């Protein structure tokens, strides 16, 4: 009898333990199903939010793109002053659209991102084409002063470049004076604030030159620059660089577009964002140069001295989110130029 009682007691304990385990497994399974259902619900909600954000981005981006295209279309048949103002407005709006795209990258698909980047490239290309057509350089009449011509045509070839008085460019009719420095090799060019004040400055086909532009020009265009050192005062609007190599540039400006440039250092003060395209080996560092009238030139230019986005660079050839572009880099502090 005692043995039977003990067996019944053991059997009861075992049965009770097995029921508890079954109940525990059922509870865990129920909890897992509830958690899985909650995750699916959150995933659906996240997808809905992402789709809603994507829809907002597409409608906003397309509306702003159409607005910029209308601006560019209005340049047809307009006079020079209107075209200049319209192009500047279109450039600012396009840069703002670029920032909007950058801020929206996290929830865009690769297809949406690629389409938006292609649209931006077309806007910048259209703007550049209109600028070339409506504001052609061939309208400039090159009239060099005799003293300047003598010095530029036969620059001394020495280890230390000499100062030359560069060619002045007058727009025909001569209502405004433009500055142009072209086809120079191994010379030093210096201009004062009075000579370049609010002018459109063009530097083209310069080799082994040192250029100092003290003052505040309206725009600065640099093309085919090879092994040069160029320091310019605050540019009130845009700087355009094309086909530059092995050079050192120091520029404060509102906007910067750099094309086809290699192995070049840019010491930059910029109030918007710099743009590079088809470039490699370009280094950026903050503008730290100084000269006696720099403070006055900043005031004339209207640039914000305390706002410098020198390291915020958009590479139109690099769309990988979260991965730095291999085409440009920040210049290490130890390698930065300090003596100008």
TrEMBL record:
PROSITE patterns: C_CAP_COFACTOR_C. InterPro entries: C-CAP_CF_C-like (IPR017901), CAP/MinC_C (IPR016098), CARP_motif (IPR006599), TBCC (IPR027684), TBCC_N (IPR031925), TBCC_N_sf (IPR038397), Tubulin-bd_cofactor_C_dom (IPR012945). Tubulin-folding protein; involved in the final step of the tubulin folding pathway. Residues 18-43 have a biased composition (Basic and acidic residues). This is Tubulin-specific chaperone C. The keyword Mitochondrion does not apply. GO terms for molecular function: tubulin binding. Keywords: Acetylation, Chaperone, Cytoplasm, Phosphoprotein. Residues 155-318 form the C-CAP/cofactor C-like domain. GO terms for biological process: post-chaperonin tubulin folding pathway; tubulin complex assembly. It is found in: Cytoplasm. Residues 1-51 are annotated as: Disordered. GO terms for cellular component: cytosol. Its main location: cytoplasm. Belongs to the TBCC family. The keyword Amino-acid biosynthesis does not apply. Pfam families: TBCC, TBCC_N.
């Amino acid at each position: 009898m005692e043995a039977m009682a003990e067996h019944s007691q053991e059997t009861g304990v075992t049965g009770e333990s097995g029921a508890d385990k079954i109940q525990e497994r059922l509870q865990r399974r129920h909890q897992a199903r509830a958690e899985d259902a909650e995750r699916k619900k959150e995933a659906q909600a996240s997808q809905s939010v992402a789709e809603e954000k994507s829809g907002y981005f597409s409608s906003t981006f397309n509306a702003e793109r159409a607005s910029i295209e209308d601006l560019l279309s209005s340049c047809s048949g307009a006079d020079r002053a209107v075209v200049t103002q319209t192009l500047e407005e279109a450039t600012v709006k396009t840069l703002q659209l670029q920032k909007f795209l950058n801020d929206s990258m996290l929830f865009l698909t690769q297809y949406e991102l690629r389409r938006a980047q292609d649209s931006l490239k077309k806007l910048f290309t259209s703007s550049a084409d209109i600028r070339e057509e409506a504001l052609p350089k061939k309208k400039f009449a090159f009239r060099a002063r005799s003293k300047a011509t003598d010095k530029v045509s036969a620059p001394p070839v020495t280890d230390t470049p000499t100062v030359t008085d560069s060619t002045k460019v007058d727009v025909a009719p001569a209502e405004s004076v433009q500055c142009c420095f072209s086809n120079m090799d191994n010379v030093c060019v210096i201009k004062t604030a009075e000579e370049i004040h609010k002018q459109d400055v063009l530097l083209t086909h310069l080799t082994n030159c040192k250029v100092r532009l003290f003052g505040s020009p309206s725009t600065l265009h640099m093309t085919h620059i090879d092994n040069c050192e160029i320091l310019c005062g605050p540019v009130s609007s845009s700087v355009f660089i094309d086909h530059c190599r092995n050079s050192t540039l120091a520029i404060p400006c509102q906007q910067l577009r750099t094309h086809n440039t290699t192995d070049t250092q840019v010491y930059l003060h910029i109030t918007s964002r710099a743009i590079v395209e088809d470039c490699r080996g370009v280094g950026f560092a903050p503008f730290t140069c100084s000269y006696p009238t720099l403070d006055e030139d900043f005031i004339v230019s209207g640039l914000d001295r305390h706002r410098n986005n020198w390291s915020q660079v958009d590479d139109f050839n690099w769309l990988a989110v979260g991965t730095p572009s291999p085409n440009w880099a920040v210049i290490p502090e130890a390698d930065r130029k300090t003596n100008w």
